[in-house]
Amino acid sequence: MLKEHLLTEVIDNVMILTLNRPESLNAFSPDMIASLTKAIKDVKQTPHIRAVIIKGAGRSFTAGGDVKSMGKASAGQLYDHVGRMNECILALDASEVPVIAAVHGFAAGAGFNLALACDLIVASDDSQFAMSFSQVGLISDGGVHIFT
After folding, report:
1. In principle, which of 18, 61, 85, 96 could form an S-S bond with 56, CB 3.0–4.6 Å?
2. pLDDT at 144 over 90
């Protein structure tokens, strides 16, 4: 797992998870999704953590799926990717501590779904939320229909 795709910091009793692929507007890589899911699940074993904040490095929260790599993936790889993203969303839903999405810039597609799965969204004035699935004939792959 590439730890640099997700930065983890604990300040007092708050875990801060930073999506760290600023060159791609923090588009989800498989390593980022796996690291984020593990970090969220691991909070249960860390009783001193009282809240989690998810934020993005650079200009954006997250642009969602990494469409550049998706174009090269097989149908099976895409299916697995969507399954891993859904596992991450379900881990957020099962979290026993409040999870806050600190959104700036884009929260698009699966990134918007990630924000919606959090308990609270704090958005800066430059935040832009977008769901483009229907424009390409798809349904959301991040569980947004469950949480809205």
Report:
1. 61
2. no
